[in-house]
Write a structure and sequence with these properties.
about 280 residues; binds 1,6-di-O-phosphono-alpha-D-fructofuranose
Length: about 280
């Protein structure tokens, strides 16, 4: 298992090196839409194609699922990879942070959160970094020329929370959730929201706090996809000593019925997640 997990992370780091280089030249939109009805960028398609080709070529990888394609690509192998190839791609136009998210499951998607054996994300910021979680070990790497070099071992969510960031339009938030946000502000947390989940969750991993994309008036499941975004990021934050929730229970306790299913997503310090659940319950 360890060999396959490390091979998947090495492959994602290798592709990340190429993605970083082509971002500047692929800012235009493709004609198509992804299965969630969002317009695709040329860079989304490039990252997705490269990840599919290279991950499925690995011996232990039995399927590849991605936010950018309708159905799974299947091969033989015991591990199954679900990716958001370019998270926050609308930030490409405004030259802000973006990422790649990867979840490694021992069941073929749609798979429950407890089938995750590892997860990771790449952050395309001023430098390219990668955070991986395997069991309870969370490690941060610098990615240069497609190679990973350890920056921090045993990463944990800082115990004193500093930042918060929530997606969606505030007028569309449920009343109880809006009241929770006010209480977070009263606790003197600082707003940090950039529109790319990877970058926003990395604020929480770095400074402590809470990130979420809540249920909305016209969309009770919110925006984020459970299999490609919610599960992997919940696995990483929980492994780093934090917590995750859909508003009432850990995201890792949830099983999607189809791979593109959405869910409200909250991750952060466990006390903040517990406080959130107590007002939403
Ligand atoms: P894009 O990949 O379409 O830019 O969406 C990014 C994302 O899925 C996630 O990374 C963000 O947290 C969230 O959507 C931002 O959504 P809003 O633009 O509604 O704030």
């Amino acid at each position: 298992m360890t060999d396959t997990i490390e091979a998947v992370f090495d492959t994602v780091a290798g592709v990340a090196g190429d993605v970083r280089e082509v971002l500047a030249s692929r800012r235009s939109y493709e004609a198509g839409e992804n299965p969630s009805g969002e317009q695709q960028l040329a860079a989304d398609v490039y990252a997705d194609d490269r990840l599919e080709d290279q991950l499925l070529a690995l011996d232990g990888v039995g399927s590849y699922a991605s936010e950018e394609r309708d159905s799974l690509s299947v091969d033989s192998g015991s591990y199954h990879v679900a990716c958001d190839p370019l998270d926050g791609s609308s930030n490409l136009k405004s030259n802000n942070g973006m990422g790649t998210i990867v979840g490694i499951y021992d069941e073929q998607p749609p798979a429950p959160g407890d089938a995750l054996v590892a997860a990771g994300y790449v952050l395309y910021g001023p430098i390219t970094t990668m955070v991986t979680a395997v069991g309870e070990t969370v490690t941060e790497f610098l990615v240069e020329d497609g190679e990973r070099e350890v920056l921090n071992e045993d990463v944990t969510v800082p115990s004193e929370p500093v930042t918060y960031g929530f997606g969606g339009r505030a007028p569309d938030w449920p009343e109880e959730f809006a009241a929770f946000v006010e209480s977070v502000e009263d606790d003197r947390l600082k707003l940090r929201y950039g529109g790319a989940m990877v970058a926003d969750v990395n604020q929480v991993m770095t400074y402590g706090g809470i990130f979420g994309y809540p249920m909305l008036a016209d969309n009770p499941e919110g925006k984020l996809r459970l299999q490609f975004e919610g599960h992997p990021m919940a696995y990483i934050v929980e492994a780093a000593g934090g917590a995750s929730s859909d508003g009432s229970r850990s995201l890792l306790e949830k099983t999607p019925t189809e791979i593109h299913e959405r869910s409200p997503v909250f991750v952060g310090n466990d006390a903040l997640i517990a406080a959130l659940e107590s007002v939403l319950a």
